[in-house]
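Intended use. Records like the one below are meant for learning the mapping from a protein sequence to its folded structure. Do not use them to infer anything beyond what is encoded.
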Amino acid sequence: MPSLSQVYKDQPLTLPNPIMDLTRMEKVPDSHAWPPLEDYLDDVPSKDGIIPVISLSEPKLAVMNQVSRACKTWGMFQVVNHGIPMRLFAELESLGHQLFGLPMEQKLKALRAPDSISGYGVARISPFFDKMMWNEGFTVVGSPLEHARRLMPDNYDRF
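Structure written out for the chain above:
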């Protein structure tokens, strides 16, 4: 079986204008104009909009069944009672704000190559949709040190 990095090398991702600088836009380009949310509501399992919450304090089999059901119906879920300190979440959120708050020119220094796993860019699932996603991401496989050094040369050690 080929490694994940080999799969990415064999199937490079090439997208037109993959990163949009939202701070400089005056109008939403057609490539990013999605239909209104109401058009998707028939596909939502629960119109009340409550994403499944899974507690890791439940028995293992119950958790596994809840994760399976949530993935099949929602494609996402929230985990509670996981034991991770809230201060760690706060620190990660702060680092995320620092990372994505960098100027576009700085973020592009860590741009993911089309045949790479790690780096800054759009999600590799983007080609499966008719419209481009309104997001930016930073995928890290292994150590983020080299990318962090390119992005924040004076403060990369926090990553």
